[in-house]
Specification:
By secondary structure, this protein is α/β, with parallel strands linked by helices. Helix content is 39%, strand content 15%. It has two domains: 196 residues, Aldehyde Dehydrogenase, Chain A, domain 1; 128 residues, Aldehyde Dehydrogenase, Chain A, domain 2 (3-Layer(aba) Sandwich), CATH 3.40.309.10. Helix 1 crosses helix 2 and helix 1 crosses helix 6. The two termini are 28 Å apart.
């Protein structure tokens, strides 16, 4: 299968998903909408809105132009004489969290043997079916499993800081990419428009804040009132009607009250001044900075824990959860790893 064939297959996937989301009748429209509506039965965090958001982001990126632009930086993808069998451990914190690894393995001409997340086992099966319907050669290149995987040459595993220790133990002898916990931050400089501040809410509340690209902490210039931002987020207040989110909100509010800790309560989000980076569901940490140098130093110290940054001169507000194909998790180039089998510090 040529690179052109692989690109066309995933462009077809994108077109099919876009058409289905738009309500056009395709072979897969009914099944996709059924999955969008029913995922919350298996995983209460996977509401129809959040599943639709994830599918939409993927669909919009999978165009011929984007795929060609992405792959053009890797001329070696045109000649894959000895394909690898890549073992992939998929995360399940947000819908289709493992899609980019699925795409990267196959677009690079390799085979994938994946362990699906028990929290998200169905959506990736539909993705597989759509790709195979366009190009049946993918049948022998895709193996999706619910249990233990074996027979792989390289490993890509995504999990928590805790699970990464097990990944290191089991997969350390293989060429590997092992991803750990990361969080994302937003930087406010005080010149933001109302629309930008409203868009920041998307970065915080989408997927209930469970994604590594969701904003868990914001940096504010000294003297800036956090209420200047929170009052722009009223349109997200309905999130409190989700009972798992509400349980988190009630729990953390109670803890802060018992411990007599100060916080700002919007009725659906708790904002707390805190030096830490990773905030729990329903809580947003914030800190103040006095100078750009101070902020740059903090970012440099914590760079291994930061997935992305939104703000002026960074990712635009509202786009944290809409990465380009070439925006790699943890900054590790997956295509380079798969095509050259060489990533500094890993092999």
């Amino acid at each position: 299968m040529t690179l052109s064939d692989r690109i066309e297959s995933f462009a077809f996937l994108g077109e099919t998903l876009r058409d289905a989301l738009a309500g056009k009748q395709t072979k897969f429209t009914s099944h996709l909408h059924q999955l969008i509506n029913n995922q919350q039965i298996k995983n209460l965090w996977f509401t129809p809105d959040n599943v639709k958001l994830s599918v939409s982001v993927i669909a919009n990126e999978l165009t011929l132009d984007n795929l060609n632009k992405w792959c053009s930086d890797y001329p070696e993808l045109n000649d894959v004489s000895e394909p690898l069998n890549a073992g992939v451990i998929m995360a399940g914190n947000i819908p289709l969290a493992g899609f980019h690894d699925f795409l990267s393995v196959l677009i690079s001409g390799n085979r994938i043997t994946a362990k699906k997340s028990s929290k998200d086992p169905d959506l990736i099966e539909l993705i597989k079916d759509i790709v195979i319907s366009f190009n049946p050669e993918f049948v022998n290149m895709i193996s999706l499993n619910e249990g233990k995987i074996s027979g792989f040459d390289v490993v890509i595993a995504t999990g928590s800081d805790n699970s990464s220790r097990y990944f290191e133990y089991y997969f350390g002898r293989y060429p590997h990419i092992i991803r750990r916990n990361r969080n994302s931050i937003a930087i406010i400089d005080g010149t933001e428009s109302d629309d930008e501040l409203r868009d920041l809410g998307k970065d915080i509340f989408s997927y209930f804040g469970l994604g590594c690209r969701n904003i868990s902490k914001i940096w504010l210039p000294a003297g800036y009132k956090v209420s200047e931002i929170t009052k722009k987020w009223d349109r997200f207040s309905g999130i409190i009607n989700h009972y798992k989110y509400a349980n988190n909100y009630d729990f953390h509010k109670a803890v802060f009250l018992i411990n007599k800790e100060e916080f700002t309560d919007t009725g659906y989000l708790i904002c707390k001044e805190d030096d830490r980076l990773s905030s729990p569901v329903s809580v947003l940490y914030y800190s103040y900075y006095n100078s750009k140098e101070e902020l740059d130093l903090w970012i440099d110290i914590n760079k291994e824990k930061i997935q992305c940054i939104t703000g002026h001169n960074f990712i635009p507000f509202g786009k944290a959860q809409a990465p380009y194909l070439w925006d790699y998790a943890d900054g590790i180039d997956t295509l380079e790893f798969l095509s050259k089998k060489k990533v500094p510090g890993i092999l």
